[in-house]
Amino acid sequence: MQMLLKLLGDGEFHSGEDLGVALGVSRSAVWKRLQQLETETGIEIHKVRGRGYRLASPLYLLDQCRLKESQDDARWSIHVYDSIDSTNAEAMRLVERGESLPLLVLAEQQTAGRGRRGRKWVSPFAENLYYSLALRIDGGMRQLEGLSLVVGLAVLKMLQELGINDAGLKWPNDILIGDRKLAGILLELTGDPADVCHVVIGIGINVNMRASAEVDQSWTSMMLESGFAHDRNLVVTSLGKSLNAYLPMQLEAGFAAFRAEWEACHLWQGKRVTLLAGINEVEGVVLGVDSGGALRLQVDGEVKVFSGGELSLRLRATSDL
Ligand code: BTN
Q: pLDDT band at residue 44, thresholds of 50, 70 and 90?
């Protein structure tokens, strides 16, 4: 299947005969495999009489060899899967199996991608980035405080490097363009945060997705914003570089050093919002974040501080101060 995808990946026409020769199978076996490919991955393949088969749009498959070479300075092992339930879940399993850390899990497709607050993360084949980095943290609550916000900054900077300039952050760690979600971050922990623990930093970026009937919120992708398809290998490499630039300082000194930079990228600074915490709602004005990355809201003339992965913000209708 991988081989067939690689052959078709250029987006050009390939005759059934040529594909058969390359794969060492008959033309009818090629046809069966193409059907299977469409069913399993949802990829659209056009068949034109006299010309052959071609993908509806070109694909940038993850190239493990290229990624290994380009991530040499990152010093983390890379595990690439065609399809996995969730890269976060797999990273957690590898941690539990005692694999050496840090390690990075990537997949072409997630069948049970996880979002924040128990939501599903829609993860079509070879369109977006599903990226989970597992790290060991030794005795440091401070290293974890604000970590997801710093990861958001690292993702944002990588996007800017690749020419996506209009994106910003929404507390705690959404990356948006206007009100459209471009990327999301899900941190998952095992162990004792006060002693030794492991954190999986899960990052989902909409890279080349052009349409989806499944996503139940307003969204965009790098491709929709820039007008061209991005090489996902380049996105992985750039993200690795950006994380390498941000994470060491966060793990050494905590979030305080990034607070001003983070607030400068926060799209909802000074906005009137509703904070949702389960069935509870708090209305206030966003003042910013504190030195641990918790949200500072002005509520009825008082400053209140909120933190926790289950919280989420909504913009109120008349939101400018
Ligand atoms: C959010 O809801 O905003 C967070 C989405 C996080 C999705 C990423 S994709 C890679 C990693 N694996 C998962 O199952 N989830 C995260």
A: confident
Q: Is 202 in the pocket of ligand 1 (CB under 6 A)?
A: yes
Write out the two tokens for 81: 């899967």
Q: Cα(208)–Cα(191) distance, rounded to whole angstroms?
A: 36
Q: Is the CB of 148 under 6 A from ligand 1?
A: no
pLDDT category at 79 given cuts 50, 70, 90 is: very high
Query: Among the listed ranges 134-143, 169-178, 240-249, which one has the minimum average pLDDT value?
Result: 134-143
Q: Give the C-alpha distances (Å, rounded to integers) separating 248 from 91, 133, 203.
A: 20, 14, 18
Determine the Cα–Cα distance for residues 172 and 284; give it in Å rounded to an integer: 16
pLDDT of residue 140: 74
pTM assigned to the model: 0.92
Q: How far is the CA of 136 from the centre of ligand 1 (A)?
A: 19
Pocket test for ligand 1, best of 87, 92, 121 (most atoms within 8 A of CB): 121
Q: Is the pLDDT of residue 85 over 90?
A: yes
Identity of the residue numbered 9? G
By DSSP bridging, strand 103-110 and strand 77-84 are: parallel
Separation between Cα atoms, residue 150 and residue 175, nearest integer Å? 12
CA distances from 12 to 9, 53, 55, 85, 253 (A): 8, 8, 8, 31, 51
User: Is the pLDDT reported for residue 321 higher than 50?
Assistant: no
Distances in whole angstroms, Cα of residue 263 to Cα of each of 153, 186, 236: 10, 20, 26
How much distance in Å is there from the Cα of 120 to the middle of ligand 1?
A: 8
Please give the distance, rounded to the nearest whole angstrom, from the Cα atom of residue 185 to the centre of ligand 1: 6
Query: Cβ atoms within 10 A of the Cβ of 24, count?
Result: 8
